[in-house]
Amino acid sequence: MSQREKPIEIINPPNMLRVKVGGRIPAADPDAIARAEKALDQLSVEFGAWLGQEVEKLEAALGRTKAEGLEGEAGDALFTVAHDLRGLGSTYQFPLVTRIAASLARLIETPEKRAAIPLSLAEAHVHSIRAALNQNIRTDDDAVGRQLAEELETRVVALVGEPT
Amino acid sequence: MADEVDTSMAFKRLNILVVDDNAAMRGLVRTVLTAFGCEMIFEASTAQHCVEVLRAKAIDIIVLDWKMKPVDGISLVKLLRNPNKSPNPYVPIIMLTAYAELSKVREARDAGVTEFMAKPFSADALYRRIQSIVNRPRPFVRTKVFFGPDRRRLAKPDYEGPERRDDEVQSA
Question: Which of A20, A97, A129, B150 has the fewest C-beta atoms under 10 angstroms from its C-beta?
Fold first, then answer.
């Protein structure tokens, strides 16, 4: 805590939320977790189609960058879709897509990075994600999938450094 | 443990607002919350819509995405923690984001989030964040430059200074 953050006032609001729900929520509730996981599992028949829609968004965003360049709005839009895919891939049972999308998101996260990297590397990420989806390569247990992810990550680290 | 309530009954009484510009992610969070027993789930796709819902409904917990437009999640957290501008400056905020880097966790903490969760999220992780918010709410801290939940629950391995609360002022 720096000097400029002093004096410090500590405020302890009354715990009205615990009053509202009627007491303490159990520290663990395996039944509740199982219900939630079952509910997600029931959605899983849709995951392939939903992931396909996200990948189509990614390809459309890549197409815009080919026309407009990575700088500006098109590059930011590509980052947004890559970032979303990073969050959704594993939930949609494609952890490999999350891994590759995370690498792409790190590559093009800021305008400064987008100004300094080759579009071809971003394109390689997008094509790799499409290939994983088309060939049903879900995890990096697959040798080809793992090698591909590692190669892309190595090139990204070389250009923009390690994640912090 | 004494004073424990049935999970479904507890969640049934919570009003939770899910803020994410990605409809699919909102749907996944809604699915999990519904399975926990939650019935009052509200959704917003923008910061502006989030504030509108907060003004209209008694929201207990916000689950918030970071990467949104035109106003991102971090800017929204700062607005919500501004007592002069916020409908509820004390509202618990769970930042649910695909950002997982430590620098992002710190940035979110310093903006005033209550809990941080990296996507892809799990039902168990969301349950534990909400359980913590209800059972062990963080005190709030007000300084010249910060208003929000006490940030000390997150370890700071790089901190080597003296006790940082030696002059704190307790208030009700």
Answer: A20
